[in-house]
Every structure is written in C-alpha cells, then in structure tokens.
Amino acid sequence: MMKNYMVAFVLAFFVFYTGNAQKTNYKVSKTTSEWKKILSPEQYYILRLSGTERPFSSPLNKEKRKGTYTCAGCNTPLYKSKHKYNSGSGWPSFDRAIKGNIAADVDYKIGYARTEVKCANCGGHLGHSFNDGPRETTGMRHCINGDALKFIPDIP
User: Fold this and answer.
1) What is the C-alpha separation between 98 and 125, in angstroms, rounded?
2) How confident is the model at residue 110 (pLDDT cuts 50, 70, 90)?
3) To 10 degrees, the CA torsion angle through 153, 130, 62, 80?
4) Phi/psi at 134 (nearest 5 deg)?
5) What separation in angstroms does the CA of 94 have from each of 7, 85, 123, 143?
6) How far is CA 125 from the centre of its chain?
7) Contact criterion met (CB below 8 Å) for 55 and 29
8) Helix (H/G/I), strand (E/B), else coil: 82
9) Greatest pairwise CA separation for the chain in angstroms
10) What CA–CA distance (Å, rounded) separates 145 from 13?
11) In the chain, what are the domain boundaries?
12) Separation between Cα atoms, residue 45 and residue 61, nearest integer Å
C-alpha cells in the first residue's frame, strides 16, 4: 500500500514539475552538436549541462588585469574586472554583472533553492548568486565557473 502511494507521489511530482517547466527562448540558440563543436568538453559540461568545475581550478581566479569577462558560449560581455573580488570560494567572484546580460533562475539540484546565474543571450549556466558578498558594494557574490567565461583584457 505504501509503495503505491510512493509511486503515485513520484508520478504526480514528475507530471507537475515537467508540466510547469518554462522554456525560455534565447537570442543565441544552437543544437547540441553545434554547441559541442564550438565548446571544449569542460565548457559544454558547465554551460549546457549546468555542471560545476572543481574549486580553485580556474586560472581566472588569479586574473588581475583590467578587462571584461564574456560568456564562453556566445561572447556576451557579462562582468567587468573592477567588480571582481577574491571571495575565497575557489571560483571567480563578482559583486555585480553588466546590466541586462545575465538572467536568474531557481536551481534545486542539491536539494534546496539557489539562485542560478545564466547568460541572458544564450542561456548558458554560469554559476550561482548569493547574498554574502561585500557589504560595502552590493552585498552580492556571483560565484562563476571560470570555464563558462573568457577574459578580454582592456587595450591600454
């Protein structure tokens, strides 16, 4: 009897969850094979499958030059270096994005709600946003996978 209730619950959850999922149309849209042709395996895993790189593995953690961080999938400018800071989290962290170039979604992948940060142009998963950033600026921490980004240094 309990087994029947459990099966019914799982089926109801699945129908509700998939039935209410909203599909967002992005300006840049590619097939799986097109994404795999232009992205490295690590970039594909992060941007298209919402993966996470190992902490402290990105060379962008130590990037100190002035410039712009763009989406590795579509080259949309996402973050300015002046808003990057060392959060100690192991991922490149920013206290704000370039206005209008990121989108937020709710992510329940680890059992509780988190704010997922995506590229507003292609929908690529970038990382997550938390409200434990620098209090003297925005109070926000955009914890971003380095493989989801490209760094374009400013030309002096």
Assistant:
1) 16
2) confident
3) 10
4) -60, 120
5) 43, 6, 19, 7
6) 3
7) no
8) helix
9) 72
10) 31
11) 28-153
12) 19
Predicted local confidence at residue 1, as pLDDT: 52
Write out the catalytic residue numbers: 143
The predicted pLDDT at position 22 comes to: 47
| Residue with token string 């309990």 | 2
Give Cβ neighbours of residue 24 (< 8 Å, ≥ 6 apart). Answer: 103, 123
Q: Please name the CATH architecture into which domain 28-153 falls.
A: Beta Complex (2.170)
Q: Tens of pLDDT along 3-30?
A: 554 444 444 443 333 333 446 789 999 9
Q: Which residues pair with 129 in a beta bridge?
A: 115, 142
Task: Compute CA distances 37 → 30, 31, 41, 70, whole Å.
Answer: 10, 10, 9, 19
Q: Tell me the pLDDT tens digit for each residue of 40-73.
A: 999 999 999 999 999 999 999 999 999 999 999 9
Query: How far apart (Å, rounded) are the C-alpha atoms in residues 146 and 42?
Result: 10
Q: Tokens for 99, please give them.
A: 């206005």
Q: Write down the residue that tokens 């970039």 correspond to.
A: 43
Q: Which residue has the higher pLDDT, 15 or 108?
A: 108
